[in-house]
Amino acid sequence: MARFAFAAPADPPLMKDLNTTPLIDVMLVLLVMLIMIVPVQLHEVPVDLPGPSQKPIEERPVTRIDITAGGAILWNGAAVSPASLPVRFRRLVADPAQPVLQIAANGESRYEIFDETLAAAKKAGVKRLGMVDNARFVEAIAGR
Asked: Does a structural domain hold residue 39?
């Protein structure tokens, strides 16, 4: 019988070169971190803030419109018709004191009335406008 000798596989020759793949991976990670962190730390927005003012802030007259839950429109507490609003807005714009128009709408009022009131104010050229009493709706909105 013939005997077969199994030769062990020869060991591969040793590599004399340095494996740089992990080194490159680490350097790329550090580079990405540097690119992301440095601009955030060095980013500035120059802002010239005004100093304290010596003259008092002038108080402007206020005209208030209330829209009730039933849809009634109140001009400084007096009921007015929606048809009379454009004339009142034009008088408001022509006033040299430039009063501020404040609109307070009840949460139960129809949005259509509020929208028509805003459209009439815009058409008349009202520039100084503010919405008031909206803080009372924060809890209702947060509860949803």
From this structure: no
| 108 vs 103, more confident | 103
Task: Quote the tokens at residue 135.
Answer: 């803080």
Scanning the structure block, which residue is given the tokens 């100084």? 128
- Report the alpha-carbon distance of residue 110 to residue 67 in Å, rounded: 9
Would residue 129 count as lying in a domain?
yes
- Check: CB of residue 138 under 8 Å from CB of residue 106: no
Task: Please tell me the pTM assigned to this model.
Answer: 0.55
SS3 assignment, position 104 = strand
Rounded alpha-carbon distances, angstroms, from residue 86 to 36, 60, 71, 112: 55, 21, 17, 16
* Domain ranges, residue 121: 62-134
